[in-house]
Design the sequence.
C-alpha cells in the first residue's frame, strides 16, 4: 500500500474516532480529499481505495485532470474550495458538483445565470471570512445571513452550506463556533470546516465536511 493510501485510511480512522468522541453519528462527516497540486497518478490510488469526494482550489488546474478521472469514475463528487472569478463561473458550473466559495453578489448572479443556461446545478456554499482578514476571500460574518437570504430571494440560488478557513495563527475553535452559529441563524445545514491541522476540532464543533489535503497526499 502506498504512503498516500495509508495516510488516507489513517485520516478516515481519525474522522471516525472524532465523530464518536463528539457524540456524532458514524458517517456524519464527509471527507473532502484536497488534491490540489497533485496529478491524476497521485489521485487514482485514493479513488481505488474508495474515496469519492475531492477538493480543488483552482478551476483551471481541475480542468486539466478531473474530466478524465470523472469519466473513469462517474460517482466522483468534485468540490471547488478556492476563490472563484466571475469569468470562470461557466467552467466552474460545468465541472464542479459543489462550489464552496460563493462570497459576493456578482458571483451569485453569474452562477445563477450559468445554472439556468447549462441546466446543471452544483450545490452551493457561502464562504465566510470569520477572521475578517483583508487578504482572504469570503463574506464578512456580519453580512453573511443577509447574503444567504439575497442568494435565495434575489439570485434564486439555494445555499446549502457555509465554509470557512480560520486565520492560520489563531485557535480555530471560536471560528468554527461562529460559522456554526451563522449557519443555524441562516437556516443552512452544511458546515465545511477543518483542514489537516484542525479537522478533529472542527468535527467537535459540528463540521459536516472536512477538507484534508496534506495529511493524505503529503506536503505541497
Ligand atoms: C489547500 C486547502 C485545504 C487543505 O489544506 P491542508 O492543510 O493541506 O489539509 C483546505 N481548504 C482549502 C480552502 C484549501 O485551499
Sequence:
Amino acid at each position: 500500500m502506498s504512503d498516500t493510501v495509508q495516510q488516507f485510511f489513517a485520516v478516515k480512522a481519525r474522522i471516525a474516532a472524532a465523530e464518536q468522541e463528539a457524540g456524532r453519528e458514524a458517517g456524519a462527516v464527509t471527507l473532502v480529499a484536497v488534491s490540489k497540486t497533485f496529478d491524476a497518478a497521485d489521485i487514482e490510488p485514493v479513488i481505488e481505495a474508495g474515496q469519492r469526494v475531492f477538493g480543488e482550489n483552482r478551476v483551471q488546474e481541475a480542468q486539466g485532470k478531473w474530466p478524465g478521472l470523472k469519466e473513469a469514475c462517474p460517482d466522483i463528487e468534485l468540490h471547488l474550495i478556492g476563490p472563484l472569478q466571475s469569468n470562470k463561473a461557466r467552467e466552474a458550473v460545468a465541472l464542479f458538483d459543489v462550489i464552496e466559495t460563493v462570497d459576493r453578489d456578482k458571483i451569485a448572479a453569474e452562477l445563477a445565470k450559468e445554472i439556468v443556461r447549462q441546466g446543471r446545478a452544483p450545490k452551493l456554499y457561502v464562504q465566510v471570512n470569520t477572521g475578517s482578514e483583508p487578504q482572504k476571500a469570503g463574506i464578512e460574518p456580519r453580512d453573511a445571513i443577509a447574503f444567504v437570504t439575497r442568494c435565495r430571494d434575489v439570485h434564486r440560488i439555494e445555499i446549502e452550506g457555509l465554509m470557512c478557513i480560520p486565520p492560520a495563527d489563531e485557535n480555530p475553535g471560536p471560528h468554527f463556533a461562529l460559522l456554526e452559529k451563522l449557519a443555524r441563524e441562516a437556516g443552512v445545514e452544511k458546515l465545511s470546516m477543518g483542514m489537516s491541522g484542525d479537522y478533529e476540532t472542527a468535527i467537535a464543533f459540528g463540521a459536516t465536511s472536512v477538507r484534508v489535503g496534506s495529511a493524505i497526499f503529503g506536503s505541497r
In short: The chain has a mean pLDDT of 97. The first helix runs from residue 3 to 21. Residues 66 and 88 are 16 Å apart (CA to CA). The beta strands are 30-34, 53-56, 77-80, 98-102, 123-128, 159-164, 190-192, 209-212.
